Model the fold of this input.
Amino acid sequence: MGLKDELGLPHKIVSEDHELLLSVVLAAQMLEKEADRLLARFGLTRSQLNILMLLRYQSREPGPDHQSLGRMLVVNRSNVTGLLDRMEAAKLVERAADPEDRRVKRVRLTPKGFKILVEAEKVYMRHVEELAGAIPPADRAVLCRILEALRRRLRRGSPQG
Done:
C-alpha cells in the first residue's frame, strides 16, 4: 500500500521528494508508537529505556554525567534532569557526586534498573529483529547509509537556509 492510500489522501502526492520524507516521518512515528506500546508493560518510556541502555552499554565507571547522557540520547533531550529525577524516584538509577569534582553528578544503574532493563530489552530487541526482518539484509546497510546522508544534510541545514 502506498503512502497516498495509507494516509487516505484523495490525490497522488505531487512531489516524490515530499513523499519520500513523509514516508520517513510516518515510519518513525509508527516505530515510536510501537515502542511505547511494548514498553508500557514494564512501566518504561522510550527515554527511560534509552537511558538504561546507555548506562549498560555505553558507559564506564564512575558513570556518565547529565551532560554526557544528554548528548548520547536518541530521544528528546529537553529535560534530562527531570527524566533522571523520575528514574531515581523509581529506583532505576542513582546519582552520586564525582569523586574528582563534587559539583558533577554521575549516573549509574541500580539493581532494580538493571533487572527491568534485562526484562524489557528481551521483548524490545525481539521486536526490533522482527521489524528489521521486513528489510532484506542486503538493503539494511544501504538504508542506514541513506538515512545517515539525510541526517548529515539536516545537521548542516538546508541549502536555502
